[in-house]
């Protein structure tokens, strides 16, 4: 009769630890590969598009003027805004406006609290200071 050897608890824990570490490493590799993939995008008006990437970049491109937006502070509900990228206001670290855009809409970037860099094209004609007044960073 063949006798099956029992697993040594130390060896079992060693193999279990190695398997869990391998799973964790594989998950991290997958996350790193998808970091800069587009999270959300959309259309503004007829000739403008916006795109938010998980690396914190909001890109606005196209031709024409950006629409104006509104922002409202409410004691009970907090900040509400109608910008299409409202879900990412706290995560946006870089704003890139490209193309032949001649105006930044009012309140477009209000309450983007993590901005580190803003890139605007030379085609911007209207003053953008008032539109970037609440941008911090």
E-strand count? 7
Amount of beta strand: 25-35%
* Strand line-up in the sheet with most strands: 1-2-3-6-7
User: What is the H/E string?
Assistant: HEEEEEEE
Distance between the termini: 75 Å
Largest sheet: 5 strands, mixed
Summary tags:
alpha/beta; single chain; 7 strands; elongated; two-stranded antiparallel ribbon; 137 residues
Structure explained in plain terms:
β2 (48-53) and β3 (57-65) form a beta hairpin. By secondary structure, this protein is α/β, with parallel strands linked by helices. The radius of gyration is 24 Å and the shape is elongated. The mean pLDDT is 78. The protein is built from one helix and seven strands; from the N terminus they run αβββββββ. 18% of the residues lie in helices and 31% in strands. The longest helix is centred in the first third of the chain and has 25 residues, at 9-33. 15% of the residues are buried. It has a five-stranded mixed sheet, with no helix packed on it. The chain has one helix at 9-33; strands spanning 38-44, 48-53, 57-65, 71-74, 78-81, 94-103, 117-119.
SSE layout:
Elements: H1 9-33, E1 38-44, E2 48-53, E3 57-65, E4 71-74, E5 78-81, E6 94-103, E7 117-119
Parallel strand pairs: 3-6, 6-7
Antiparallel strand pairs: 1-2, 2-3, 4-5
């Amino acid at each position: 009769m063949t006798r099956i050897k029992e697993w040594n608890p130390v060896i079992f824990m060693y193999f279990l630890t190695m398997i869990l570490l391998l799973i964790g490493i594989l998950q991290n590799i997958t996350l790193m590969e998808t970091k800069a993939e587009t999270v959300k995008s959309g259309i503004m008006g007829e000739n403008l598009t916006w795109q938010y990437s998980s690396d914190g970049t909001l890109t606005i491109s196209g031709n024409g003027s950006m629409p104006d937006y509104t922002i409202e502070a409410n004691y009970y509900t907090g900040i509400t805004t109608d910008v299409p990228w409202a879900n990412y206001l706290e995560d946006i670290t870089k704003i890139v406006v490209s193309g032949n855009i001649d105006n930044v809409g009012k309140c477009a970037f209000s309450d983007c609290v993590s901005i580190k860099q803003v890139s605007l094209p030379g085609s911007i004609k209207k003053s953008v200071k008032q539109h970037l007044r609440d941008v911090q960073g």
